[in-house]
């Protein structure tokens, strides 16, 4: 589904974020990206959703070299990808329903499709009763559930999550991880960067460890560290 071939990413000043990285992620996999800050995790994810371009190498998504996409084609790529961030990134002036609906509106969905799909995902994440609330009235865990709802409402084939539990307490974090696991079991590929060692070690999913811009470990049913 996703392949990186000999990918190097250089930033101004000679900073090498990724160094000749080659890796493949299969459909339906749940992958944890681990490693210290600055190891290259976020850069790798940004290359997949085309926020960054590789300095060298190729990034293949569903058989297409996305490094060659024209700018006008990038939105069509991103329709297939849901993104979840540590800081939620909800629109404060919109309700829960409107935040999720907005993700559908920008893809051209009809009002009929929105009215059908948004309640479905809110029911899935346990927030149907919060549809008309504004983000400021929600807990951190609830806000992240809205963020996840927004990421999955367009039925993406891939979810990229960057430290999604970083601002949450342990109990809330585990609730969210069970939600991600349920999404994964429906066939969606999940790539998640995290420092949550307890979650990684207990879930025993594929673990890809980066250090100094290189992959130093790729382990099935792995733990946070050896």
Looking at this protein, list some descriptive labels.
226 residues; alpha/beta; six-stranded mixed β-sheet; four-stranded antiparallel β-sheet; 7 helices; 10 strands; 32% helix; globular
Chain-wise SSE layout:
Blueprint: E1 2-11, E2 15-25, E3 30-34, H1 41-48, E4 56-61, E5 64-65, H2 74-78, E6 81-85, H3 96-105, H4 111-124, H5 140-152, E7 158-162, H6 170-185, E8 189-193, H7 197-203, E9 206-211, E10 214-219
Parallel strand pairs: 3-8, 3-9, 6-7, 7-8
Antiparallel strand pairs: 1-2, 1-4, 4-5, 9-10
Helix pairs in contact: 3-4, 3-5, 4-5, 5-6
Describe the structure.
The chain is an alpha/beta fold and 226 residues long. 32% of the residues lie in helices and 27% in strands. The chain has seven helices and ten strands. The strands form two sheets. A six-stranded mixed sheet has the order 6-7-8-3-9-10, with helices on both faces. Strands 2-1-4-5 form a four-stranded antiparallel sheet, with helices on one face. A hairpin with a 2-residue loop joins strand 9 and strand 10. It is globular. The mean pLDDT is 94.
């Amino acid at each position: 589904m996703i392949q990186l071939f000999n990918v190097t990413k250089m930033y101004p000043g000679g900073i090498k974020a990724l160094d000749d990285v080659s890796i493949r992620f299969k459909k339906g996999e749940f992958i944890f990206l681990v490693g210290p800050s600055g190891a290259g995790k976020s850069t790798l994810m940004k290359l997949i959703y085309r926020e960054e371009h590789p300095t060298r190498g190729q990034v293949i998504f569903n058989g297409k070299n996305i490094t060659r996409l024209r700018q006008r084609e990038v939105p069509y790529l991103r329709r297939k990808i849901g993104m979840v961030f540590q800081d939620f990134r909800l629109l404060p002036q919109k309700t829960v329903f409107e935040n999720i609906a907005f993700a559908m509106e920008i893809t051209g969905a009809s009002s009929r499709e929105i009215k059908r799909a948004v309640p479905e995902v809110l029911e899935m994440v346990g927030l149907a009763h919060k549809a008309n609330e504004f983000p400021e009235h929600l807990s951190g865990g609830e806000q992240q559930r809205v963020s996840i709802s927004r990421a999955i409402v367009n039925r993406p084939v891939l979810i990229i999550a960057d430290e999604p539990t970083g601002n949450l307490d342990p109990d809330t974090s585990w609730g969210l991880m069970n939600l991600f696991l349920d999404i994964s079991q429906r066939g969606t590929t999940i790539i998640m960067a995290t420092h949550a060692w307890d979650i990684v070690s207990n879930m025993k999913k594929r673990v890809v460890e980066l250090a100094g811009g290189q992959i130093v470990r790729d382990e099935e049913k792995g733990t946070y560290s050896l």
